[in-house]
Amino acid sequence: MAVQTLPIPGKIDARRSRGAALLEWLHGWVVTVDHKKLGVLYIVYAIFFLLVAGAEAMAMRVQLAIPLNHFLSPELYNEFFTMHGTTMVFLVGMTIIFGFGNYLVPLMIGARDMAFPRLNAFSFWMSAFGGLFLYFSFIGGFGLYGMGSAPDVTWWAYAPLTAKAFSPGHNTDYWALSLIVMGFGTLGAAINTLATAFSMRCRGMTLLRMPLFVWLMVVTSGLTLITITPLTAAQVMLIIDRYLGGHFFDTQAGGSATVWMHFFWIFGHPEVYVLILPAFGIASEVIPVFSRKAIFGYPAMVAASVGIAFVSLSVWAHHMFTIGMTSVSNAFFALSTMMVGIPTGIKIFNWVATMWGGKIRFATPMLFCTAFLFQFLCAGLTGIMLAAAPWNWQLHNSYFVIAHFHYTLTGSFVFCMFAGIYYWYPKVIGRKLSETLGKWHFWLFFIGFHMTFDTMHFVGILGMPRSIYTYQADRGWNTLNMIISIGGLIQAVAILILAWNLIDSYRHGSIAGNDPWDAWTLEWSTPSPPPPYNFATDPVVRSRRPLWDIKHPNDPDWKYER
Amino acid sequence: MSSIPIFADESWHLPSRGRVAMCSLIIGESAIFTIFVVAYVYYIGRSAYGPTPQILDVPWFNTVCLLSSSISIMFAERAIERGRIRTFGAWWVLTMLLGIVFLSGTAIEWKRLIYTDGLSIRTNLFGTTFYSLVGLHATHVVVGLLMLSLVMIFTLLGRVEQRHAERVQVLSLYWHFVDAVWVVVFTVVYLVGR
Amino acid sequence: MQPRHFSPPTRPSVFVLALACMGVMPSVAQDALTTPSILAPASTPAKEIYGLSLFVLLITGAIFVVVGGLLAFVIIRFRARKSDAEHEPAQIYGSVRVELAWTVIPVLIVVVLFLTTARIIFAIQDAPEPESALDVTVVGHQFWWEFRYPKLNIVTANELHVPVSSSADPEPTYLRLLSADVDHSFWVPQLGGKTDLIPNHPNEMWIDPHKPGLYRGQCAQFCGIEHALMLIRVYADTPQQFDAWVKNQQRPAADDAAVAAGRQVFVSEACASCHTIVGTSAHGTFGPDLTHLMSRATIAAGAATNTPENLRAWIENPNTFKPGALMPAMQLTKKQTDQVVAYLTTLH
């Protein structure tokens, strides 16, 4: 049969316009259900709000650098410190942990995606929307010319300050509603992570062969289910009080301000463990690889993580030692708080034991993890101090507490997140981050961090309370506050170096290859970046370190693991 | 990966992701309900004024209907497991009807409480905690009914088959949860609290 | 049962005694202006806490030295060296004995810490109130402190006078803590830990300053826009000083005919709807009692010193010192303001 050619009507332009290509690229990101892209979206979102909340902190530190300063008005200062805390916990902390979880959990367990990809996308966009709604508050209300209606009641929003009578504007409403919306996103992410880890593991990967990061994401997700939900419940009650005339926290009608405190801290305390557990997971991946040794005591690490999650549910009222609980209640919560230090301390020992006898390479991820170990030790010890209830009666609501929780959140959580970024950026992007810039970032941030937060312990001991927009000049706090503020500036410079490193290495970083760090878990067996389907064939594993088994066929892990 | 020996005698069973997800959701929702129950219990007897729980009539009929719907949904699950779609459809509709009866009963009760007894959510602590807790449960019943009606529509369109049994079972887990919560709410509000 | 006194060697506090000779008005220039440090306790609860804190610091310090030292050692000793051959170190997966040891030791430490802590909790919180105690009711407001001495029939604001107390002659002050609006917290670090003032939830705490002087603190629970300027001054008075202060506070307001015009402005304008001046028809309770305003060193809960110029500025526009304070600008004419200030400055 003769071949017939028909002219194709119209013109085909083989080159799409740049605009069309850009639109298509953006569209791809908006409609994606790929866990890797959603993971990147979460992390980029988190880093953006890290910069925003950091700017809020810098403004606060300029205001507090000298006594009786007039850089920020009281309204704006109160909005900034409320937003700083709320942003860092929810828009940075919660998003970045599920960002790492989303990206890594399927890869680490040999799966092709999360259990529910569309739920995954829904969760991200709910969280993103909630956060943007929160920030809309600055321009809602009185708008840019007034102070805006950003929440200004502290991130724990005690009643009855949040009642309509004492907070007539919409500040509190933005706080409650945006967090309720974000809470749905978080709940979806937690459910998805649990379903993925339980139902999508590759053949041979029993629960006790999962990488510790996956274990910690599982424990975190389980804890999240019963941590975020009390906050949602309490915030719904607050909205009912404010708009439907309810009396949950209405002290004039017999309602109780302390009930809010209990509900909030039943969320608030396990929440900080929700944040720190994934950080532990990152450390548990980085430290073994850079020490060239398997993690010491894997089963104990799993047990300690589960133990921490359970005990953390029993300690919440250590935030309430000063509200007038009975001496027996105070004693109980002092005991439970001290006890949660035990499994946490055990983990530190396990990490140190992992490094013992190793051949430690201090690349940037390991620098951050090593600093994390020192700082988390200090944070745990100041936590013990705060657990001693009578001492807490002095230290509560002072700068000592701020120092403690920044040691856990900045000094431990953020340091581990940075370690994770330097460790997995090559996998995500295909190029390594610059080691030189990484070391500048590390040392500047380390110095600035200690300058700020070591000093804060002292100014708290000298009687300076928190949540104050200014202080008297004759209390002896002036020099210390100036030092704290300068340290903040140094940290800001370090973060800018990180931002530059992230952007510049995208184009100019050295090509990473599959496995730049000579690591042992499944994500390092794929190309960098991994193809959309992750694995060409479903992996089969026989130990906790499948790549070690391949690299050391005469000495595989499964001969020794118990 | 081919160098890792595959052990042919190892069977590899993983739990169904739908079940894990639904159980996780149920755990989260239980936490929300727990907070509302705790608030209710804490505030028992603390209303300074206004109607007290004595004005409540125990909703025996509603409760029997709702709890029976758990039984009917169980029969529906069994039917679809065996591929009897028409039987499944019948039990499913019965479940929904029982749920609707429950909601109507709640609506009638609330109408009486608001207009005759003068109890609204803003009246006093009892009003606030009662309507929040019972209302939260009713909301979950509504959401459940929406999901059930979706399945019913698909059944009527002939799209539901025996292979969907597992998904139906995951959904009925949610319905059982809603019923279990009612047992708790009923006990706390109508038995203990009065 | 007297609370046991914890008497570790305290560091010598460095402050000047307030010289209140006739005991009416402590001189501002000679106020003891110390840093409100928890390391300079001057009262039994603060001292007990200080002792506990030293003990806890000792234990946590030891843990820091041991674990931190181990970590430092590991970083240095097990660093990869260039000369290392390219094989991996020995892989150690765990050790039951070691892990047991480092579980048991922390448990023991926690037990010791907890028992010590519990003892201090009960000693401070459950200390029974002696007969000789002075009762003061503290009511927290946005953004000032109301102090009522029910048995002495005194109401004042922001500056608390209490008698010094010694173990020979104990006269602690028991504070009953209430709130008129939102949550506050009473914190004077040198005198004791803080306790919150929560509406519909009365609380109690006690202090017993051992040395006369001025002790400063401030509200320690965020209570709104001017939480930062809700300061506290506690004057621990010698018995003579305290008696003199009480006698003065119990008198009705000074009634100087020369400033009758100012008094008239005060009671007829809106001032009287918020403030009380005993002996006049002003019975307002929303704002501080001004009967003995000039016996206080500061105004606006410590936001400004108590001088006629500051009084004038405060009355004209409270936002000068405390933007967001709940007192409105009074919109008086200049003449009225002069008269009111002249009147108020007679209220010793």
Largest sheet of chain C: 5 strands, mixed
Order of helices and strands of chain C: HHEEEEEEEEEEHHHEEHH
Give the amount of beta strand of chain C, in percent: 15-25%
Note the gap between the termini of chain B.
66 Å
Overall residue-averaged pLDDT value of chain B: 93
Q: What's the mean pLDDT score of chain C? A: 89
| Principal-axes shape call of chain B | elongated
| Structural class by sheet pairing and helices of chain B | mainly alpha
What name goes with the CATH superfamily of the largest domain in chain C? Cupredoxins -  blue copper proteins
**Oligomerization state:** heterotrimer
CATH class assignment of the largest domain in chain C:
Mainly Beta
Give the arrangement of secondary structure elements:
The complex is a heterotrimer of chains A (562), B (194) and C (348).
Chain A: H1 18-31, H2 35-65, H3 74-108, H4 117-136, H5 171-199, H6 212-244, H7 257-291, H8 298-312, H9 327-355, H10 364-387, H11 389-395, H12 399-429, H13 435-461, H14 478-508, H15 546-551
Helix pairs in contact in A: 2-3, 2-4, 2-14, 3-4, 3-5, 3-7, 4-5, 5-6, 6-7, 6-8, 7-8, 7-10, 7-12, 8-9, 9-10, 10-12, 10-13, 12-13, 13-14
Chain B: H1 17-42, H2 60-81, H3 85-115, H4 125-156, H5 165-192
Chain C: H1 44-77, H2 96-125, E1 134-141, E2 144-149, E3 154-157, E4 159-163, E5 173-179, E6 184-187, E7 195-197, E8 203-207, E9 213-219, E10 231-237, H3 239-250, H4 260-268, H5 271-274, E11 298-299, E12 304-305, H6 308-316, H7 334-344
Parallel strand pairs in C: 1-5, 4-10
Antiparallel strand pairs in C: 1-2, 2-3, 5-8, 6-7, 6-9, 9-10, 11-12
Helix pairs in contact in C: 1-2, 4-7, 6-7
